[in-house]
Automatic annotation (TrEMBL):
Protein name: LytR/AlgR family (LytT)
Species of provenance: Fructobacillus tropaeoli
Keyword set includes Isomerase: no
Tagged with keyword Heme: no
HTH LytTR-type domain mapped to chain residues: 54-147
SMART domains named in the record: LytTR
Taxonomic lineage from the root: Bacteria, Bacillati, Bacillota, Bacilli, Lactobacillales
Keywords on record: Cytoplasm, DNA-binding, Transcription, Transcription regulation
Length: 147
């Protein structure tokens, strides 16, 4: 796939055009990803063989499992094409918080933080699950007063 940019002094607004022989699943996915980046309000995730658009506020968390990135929405788990570092740059900080190198959580999905007896930071989620935050990210969270 070739990506290029053409400058037109007469253009009123930027336009993105995809030239292809036929409309494939990859082209549809690319269209949706471009639109979600522009809107910054939704993300396309994979459910079985289909791609599904999910609004960002509906996503509970993103996590890494067996070298793949998943998102959780109301107890359902979907595979995403983006890496954690891409999601960290893409997702609005007002809605999501990164707690480790392998997990980003919707702020509204966090019930509380708790320091365990071993000194690890537990993150208790609204659905009763417990996950752990790394010390490095907790230091950043406290320093920036994100909680």
């Amino acid at each position: 796939m070739k990506v290029s940019t053409k400058i037109d002094q007469n253009a009123q607004t930027p336009n993105i055009v995809i030239f292809a022989k036929q409309k494939t699943a990859k082209i549809v996915y690319l269209e949706h990803e471009i639109q979600s980046v522009i809107n910054h309000s939704s993300l396309f995730v994979k459910n079985q063989e289909d791609y599904q658009q999910i609004e960002l506020p509906n996503i509970d968390r993103f996590y890494t499992e067996e070298h793949a990135i998943y998102c959780q929405v109301n107890g359902q788990h979907y595979k995403t094409q983006k890496r954690i570092y891409e999601l960290a740059d893409f997702l609005p900080e007002s809605l999501f918080i990164q707690i480790s190198q392998s997990e980003i959580i919707n702020r509204h999905f966090i019930q509380c933080f708790r320091l365990s007896k071993t000194g690890a930071y537990e993150v208790i989620l609204r659905d009763g699950q417990t996950t752990f935050a790394s010390r490095r990210y907790m230091r950043r969270i406290k320093k920036e007063k994100l909680l």
